[in-house]
Amino acid sequence: xxxxxxxxxxxxxxxxxxxxxxxxxxxxxxxxxxxxxxxxxxxxxxxxxxxxxxxxxxxxxxxxxxxxxxxxxxxxxxxxxxxxxxxxxxxxxxxxxxxxxxxxxxxxxxxxxxxxxxxxxxxxxxxxxxxxxxxxxxxxxxxxxxxxxxxxxxxxxxxxxxxxxxxxxxxxxxxxxxxxxxxxxxxxxxxxxxxxxxxxxxxxxxxxxxxxxxxxxxxxxxxxxxxxxxxxxxxxxxxxxxxxxxxxxxxxxxxxxxxxxxxxxxxxxxxxxxxxxxxxxxxxxxxxxxxxxxxxxxxxxxxxxxxxxxxxxxxxxxxxxxxxxxxxxxxxxxxxxxxxxxxxxxxxxxxxxxxxxxxxxxxxxxxxxxxxxxxxxxxxxxxxxxxxxxxxxxxxxxxxxxxxxxxxxxxxxxxxxxxxxxxxxxxxxxxxxxxxxxxxxxxxxxxxxxxxxxxxxxxxx
Amino acid sequence: xxxxxxxxxxxxxxxxxxxxxxxxxxxxxxxxxxxxxxxxxxxxxxxxxxxxxxxxxxxxxxxxxxxxxxxxxxxxxxxxxxxxxxxxxxxxxxxxxxxxxxxxxxxxxxxxxxxxxxxxxxxxxxxxxxxxxxxxxxxxxxxxxxxxxxxxxxxxxxxxxxxxxxxxxxxxxxxxxxxxxxxxxxxxxxxxxxxxxxxxxxxxxxxxxxxxxxxxxxxxxxxxxxxxxxxxxxxxxxxxxxxxxxxxxxxxxxxxxxxxxxxxxxxxxxxxxxxxxxxxxxxxxxxxxxxxxxxxxxxxxxxxxxxxxxxxxxxxxxxxxxxxxxxxxxxxxxxxxxxxxxxxxxxxxxxxxxxxxxxxxxxxxxxxxxxxxxxxxxxxxxxxxxxxxxxxxxxxxxxxxxxxxxxxxxxxxxxxxxxxxxxxxxxxxxxxxxxxxxxxxxxxxxxx
Lengths: 461, 448
Hints:
The complex is a heterodimer. By secondary structure, chain A is of the alpha+beta class. Chain A has helices spanning 6-16, 74-85, 118-134, 204-219, 240-250, 252-256, 317-323, 356-361, 412-417, and strands at residues 23-39, 42-60, 63-70, 102-103, 139-157, 162-180, 183-193, 222-223, 227-233, 277-280, 301-306, 309-310, 331-332, 341-342, 346-349, 365-378, 383-395, 398-404, 407-411, 419-422, 427-435, 438-446, 449-457. Helices cover 20% and strands 42% of the residues of chain A. In chain A, helix 1 (6-16) runs parallel beside helix 2 and helix 3 (118-134) runs parallel beside helix 4. Chain B is of the alpha+beta class. In chain B, 23% of the residues lie in helices and 38% in strands. In chain B, the strands form 4 sheets. In chain B, strands 3-2-1-4-5-6 form a 6-stranded antiparallel sheet. In chain B, strands 10-9-8-13-19-18 form a 6-stranded mixed sheet, with helices on one face. In chain B, strand 9 (298-303) and strand 10 form a beta hairpin. The N and C termini of chain B lie far apart (61 Å).
């Protein structure tokens, strides 16, 4: 990777600190992407794009000054550094010397997606369509999306950091609509990772099949129950509950503003001793993994909950300086158009020793929430809400009828305390996480987890 | 950079690369954002961007490409990539450029005084928003107060001879305030928007954030019930935005709308009237023409409770044997046009909020919903979403409530509308909607 000359980067940082500041950073990015979809049996919307840009940040005390520009031209980078410096009042500071950017330890990409002919991408979509329609005559609509992206990133800062990363991601998703007697239901599934074409090349059957099965299942669904019930949450995408209800509250920006229920709780026993959770941006090939974060800090595994105790928050450089700790490699940004903020990478519960059947078998009456349509949390209170996209009743220790329209409403701290069983079947799924107007790829995951009691908002009364 | 020239050159390059028809959208803009916290600037950003997006048609197929490199080589690369991408698509007999183009003049899209505002004054404005929230008794913290603005120019050209362009400005500010402590901490948001910072009232924005948080302090989980529900303008806007997306002809044609085959039907109570209006001078999504060069207009969607039409772009209109409603929307040069709402405008009714409470008698006033997009089934319209607000007792707002869900299905909800309030406002959260409070006759509320 070589986007900018380190000598130019040094001049940019010098100019950025020309009117003072504690820290300056130049972030340079070249991104390229291609996406294509299939809808109504037709391959459509092929889209290609290429962007190059850079941004400069100066931090002074608690204030950040930021500017970004399209392109990597010398004069543009120097101009944006000068204009950011204009907002700072103080004595010039010299940045530390810079070397060649060190390439981060990457994630394996066997087949670069840009080397695969577009016609094959169209065939992949058609194959998904065929598999979904073959599932049952009740499948009426199939929508499939494929996307690939490559982001080359270089980060230089006034502490002398010079780092580079080359990130390739692919993702395949399917959404299926099934109809029977005026009843219409949808189901979806995705597969994505920090990897090449090899990840999804053989997946059409699995992804399309799962999406179709979910839609078809819902055709038989009964109204969701209402009230406080035990809930067994499925593995993989079920981890979105942890992501939303706990993870966001551990991001250091929310913690430092006391806008998190987890502020001041470090060291506290928040869950049963068999509960451990990680944020891990290193896991090979996972969707939320990178070599470095968007501030040049190498990604790593951070234990956030250990044996039920809260042991770490998630930091970027700025918030770590404030707390006198090291960045945990969670300074992420959507693109060169954004300031980095503490964000999760891949967040998941560590596997326990129960089995899914064991967890379900002990429930007299409850809900089995296999997958969520999405969720939302207010980090300040920990209150969350999740739509259950695939769920079943648990009756007498057995999974029975599928339910539709169920919503889980609760509070992160309470839900964490109420985790009373964890299975061994860890799986990580790919999602997109939005925060502060920025969307980044995030891996969510867990084994099957049981929560003693949660409020289920249903459609039945 | 001359955006008009650039767009024309990009169209020519795509035609030279073998496109039978082509269209180019060019864009340039600057934006500022000030975030303050505890009386200090937390971040200040100043940014510029520009780019070009090209749609190329060939043999009934279409492809799209975009880029930020506006040099001759960069534009050529994008034009060729658009042409090459088209190869991957299946032919679509309805795709293509519009047969007619035009522009509808919209007054005041760009403020002339934006430039007069220095960065220092904008910082002052953000600080004033924060102060207004913090100074309310009972507010424990202001999580953030943000001022943001954008000035942009766009140009559109196509191979059938259309060329047009416009400038637009937008300024907005919001704050998020906390009231109460610990497990009883409640949050509230205040927001305001206009064409320039002079249109923003910092006291009103900060005050609204404070009031919304304070109103929820001490909230408890209510008992489950079926009762009348008043949606405040924010919540009404969220639902209307979702309904608007379901009125897209594309969603209908692809079997993803619960309103399919309901054109002409009574889908709502007669009290409800809703229009899409791309020409509202105050509308954040107003413009002289849409993303493919069709002139903007006002399209009544629901009148007297009857669904009058769906929203069309050129492609979906051809497919349905109709004409475009000027709803080819475009987020930026990075995406091709697709059917979407411009500004959704709910016609205000004659009753104040207090009158809606009195009419509700015993019920629920909802001021927040969470998880709407995951909680609504887009095809069947059934939903169950998290909510917070206050009970209504004896026609008056009473104790605050949280950790509850409201459930219904969209059509039943629309048909159960009893009245629309008179206090209409723009709500710029996730779309552009001008909404007023709505009284719904009955919904299922689940709590304890």
